[in-house]
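Dear support,

We are seeing what looks like truncated structure output for some complexes. This example has two components. We would appreciate it if you could run it in full and send us the complete token output so we can diff it against ours.
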Amino acid sequence: MLHAVLSAATEGGEASPSPVIPEWYDIIWSSVCFVIILVFFWKYVLPRVQKLLDERGEAIEGNIAKADEAQRKAEAALEQYTAQLADARTEAGRIRESARDDSKTIVAEAREQALSEAARIASSAQAQIEAERQAALVSLRSDVGTLAIDLASGVIGESLTDDAKAQSVVDRFLAELEASEQAAAGGKS
Amino acid sequence: MFVVARAELHAPKQEIALLANALDLLVPMSTDDGGFHGPSIDEFFPGALLFEGTDFEINRIMLVRFVAVAALLLVFWLGTRRMTVVPGRFQSLVEMGLDLVRVNIADDLLGKRDGKRFLPILTTIFFMVLFMNLTGVIPFLNIAGTSVIGVPLVLAIVAYVTFIYAGIRKNPKNFFKNSLFPSGVPWPVYIIVTPIELISTFIIRPITLTLRLMMNMIVGHLLLVLFFAATQFFVIQLSGGWTLLGVGTLAFGFVFTLFEILVAVLQAYVFALLTAVYIQLAVAEEH
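Here is the complete output from our reference environment:
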């Protein structure tokens, strides 16, 4: 290189071209290259990249929103389940309480019923006993009357055929008997 | 070096001749047959293939650029043709590249709103520089599309126009005033500050953007050529014990190829980053 330059200098002939002095064709083709690349990037590459970046951003944002939504839903569901659980618990408590009340009522009713039944049975038994006593008393009275008349007839030899008379005798006798009984009872008590 | 050499065109010819003779001893001659062919600046000015002599001349480097552009279009067309919300491997890779510009350069420096506004320019600058840098280490292309001044210059002008446009849009009346007369400075200081601001903001910026990229690529190419030409020279031309040295230069060539990949990415990043920084300074409320 030095030789070329120096020989050019010494001979004054045609020098090597200087690298800092541009040739027109150099400038022109450089500009052409620049314009082609500029237009390519400006109109084709960068808009596509920008679009892609926007899409990517949207996708990320969308995913975040989706995740938020899912979380919100899950939280709502959890809340709902918790509420339902609490409801169920109170419901169960209420049911238990009412069951307890019911059982108390039932027991009380049963007891009452049993008592009344017992009372009813007792009273009917008493009534029956009373009725039987009355019946026994009536039948005893007539039997005793007849027996006494027959006995008395035999004793006095006189037939007490007259019913009215016989009746009055018996009644008197019974009255006396009752009076003596009552006196005995009064003396006892 | 050549700049210096050209600058000395005006020096007396005798001195130049002396210098040339002195250098003859240091630099192997390239004219000898079977000698060492060192790298030359002429490699960046190959012969025309089409339209020679017109303003639409196409030479090898222009073709390399077209290949880089085609590769770029192909990669990003395939990578963004069917984009899915959940990316595949290739799409992830392409997205990673685009994210580097969008997040680490545009959004970080300019904020969401301005970052989006200037994203097409920044993305274009980054990937155009990256792909054209990488052609420097790709076999059979072997030269960076950015190693000729056209691309760095055009992109630097784009960056320049963009940051001035951004500043004027943001602050139609006061952009140049804020740039040249920073507030909070006593007026006599403007005598010094204003020329400095003028030069650094409106003159140095595009020049450094251009030269940084181009020189990196030129030097990278020359280094690689030097190593591989030396390997060729040692192994084929000299052979014998020199082969060992050839292996050494080959190893260096390999290491510097890896280094050139790093430089390619780094320069693309720096170019896009500086463009973003200039825009950010222009749209900042206080300059």
